[in-house]
Amino acid sequence: MLLEDDFGFSQERLGRATVFIAGAGGLGSPAAYYLAAAGVGRIIICDNDEVETSNLNRQILHSTNRIGQRKTESAAETLRAFNPEITIKPKDALISGDPAGLIEDADLIIDCLDNIEARYVINDYSIRNGVPIVHGGINGYAGQISFIAPPETACIRCIFPQDYGSEDPIPVIGATAGLIGSLQAIEAVKYLTCSGALLKNQLYIIDSFSNESEKLQLEKNPDCPACGRR
User: Fold this and answer.
1) What pTM was computed for the model?
2) At 19, which helix (H) or strand (E)?
3) What would the mean pLDDT of 49-65 be, rounded to a whole number?
4) Domain 8-217 grouped into CATH 3.40.50.880
5) Under a CB-based contact definition with an 8 Å cutoff, are residues 123 and 157 in contact?
């Protein structure tokens, strides 16, 4: 299952690549599907939860006959059936502390998380090891995406210095997760094949309810506790 055009050399790059997907939920599902379809050679997918009925409007890696199954197991089963020519490595774990053992030798991290603390963990890893992140987030009809590559760009702590979220559940339109997760996959393919313009120092925000979008220019915070003065 490969790219259907003349990207011969690019296809080789994708086949040699390893991508770490943090989260097997609403964003991780479409991102993983399209990266598997593109022929990314090795996908590590990490989550620490199980499939629930309430998730299925957006978490398309899973299905009703897998309710109660670990998400990583379900994701691996789906992706292996979808493209048996690539390697899928599920990791049922909480992202905390030093995630080096989870991320291994990944060339790229896809941020499909839903909590800021885990994002800070992968952000700190990214800064220490020079592995870029494709960040994605969703809320209702709205979503956002950015390409984060310290020290060239602002890091996650620069953009989100603290958690402004609510303890209430975040409303999610399934198709919004599909849109942003697909854009994350596109950003990943561009990076892995050294092609196209990446969203460096830009936060691309899409509001599907009003059909409006904007790109916010980002700047490094020189006093950032993670990447400041680097």
Assistant:
1) 0.93
2) strand 18-22
3) 94
4) no
5) yes
